[in-house]
Amino acid sequence: MKYDVPLNLNTNNSLSILIKYISPSSKVLEFGCANGRMTRYLKHELNCEMYIVERESDAYEEAKEYADDGICGDIMDFLWADRWTDFDYIIFADVLEHLSDPSIVLKHCRNILKNTGRILISIPNIAHNDVVIRMIQDTFQYTDIGLLDDTHVHFFARESLLPMAHQAGFVMTGMNYVSLPTGGTEQFWNEDIPVCPELMNLLRERAFGEVYQFVFSLEKQEYAAEITMPSTGFPPMECKIYPDYGQGFSEQTVTVVQADRVAHGRYRYQKEFTAEGCLIRLRFDPVEQQGCILYKAEASSASQKAVAVYKDFVTLGDKVLLKGNDPEIVFVFKEPCEKTISIEVEFEVFSISLINFLFEELKARSISDKK
Length: 371
Known about the structure:
Class I SAM-dependent methyltransferase; single chain; 371 residues; Rossmann fold; 2 domains; 7-stranded mixed beta sheet; 8 helices
């Protein structure tokens, strides 16, 4: 089978998220259970009463060892619809996208779900940035696995599942997700991302652009509990830190860190860096292949504050415009540091709002010069 891989509860994956929703000793129906990796865990570790539907006979024979009852057959044959009832949970782990009519399946599930029960769904996100990039290239590239698995007959983004769930009598009461960075999916394995910095800036402003899989919890509309949602999934900006212990800056000692998005096009990095020797300088590269504007750039130890040095820059009031395609901030310490360094850098990449700001700043300077 394509997805016959071990169950890993130590990472943030769709199955580990789904399992967190399930209470011990529950009655569970699992559609498309494959070889039973999650079935086994729910049965043996959570003491759940397990029922399964799996169309591939070899996988079913393996999974049924962990089930109280099961059907080897196609979900769309609906042999399950009149066979069982009163489930606490019904699970579709990356299954709905393979069905010819997922809407009618959800409607039938409503009849066999307890009033207080939940439908748990994981689905790949067709609107991931990698798919968007491929479509900008006029390409819709199917793959053996993943976002554009060549066996998918339906595609879903965050908003497209909700109307279908509503028509079946459900509301979404929980949402989580698994993220992969732009360029990190099977769409670009072993390839460079063919996009310009300007497009990357726009893609970073897509709240769920790096969501690889969504995990939804659905409940019957008339019995739904309080809705719980995570914060929006704006991707961070990847930055680099280079320490200088007396031998200069080197790619061998670089640390890749992530700055959090705080506003449109604006990012902040505020964490501590532990020196591994007598630190003389510390270089911080906020972005790659484009300039940015600095709102704040500070680094300090318990005993001293570093001086920030820039190259190829223009001062704009209390802000600094770093030009060129390789902006960097070099923090210089008066005395070598051997302890923890606190770093705070806030910057904005080029965007419409930043261009407007620069235009207004230049206009103000022009008026001032004329006076």
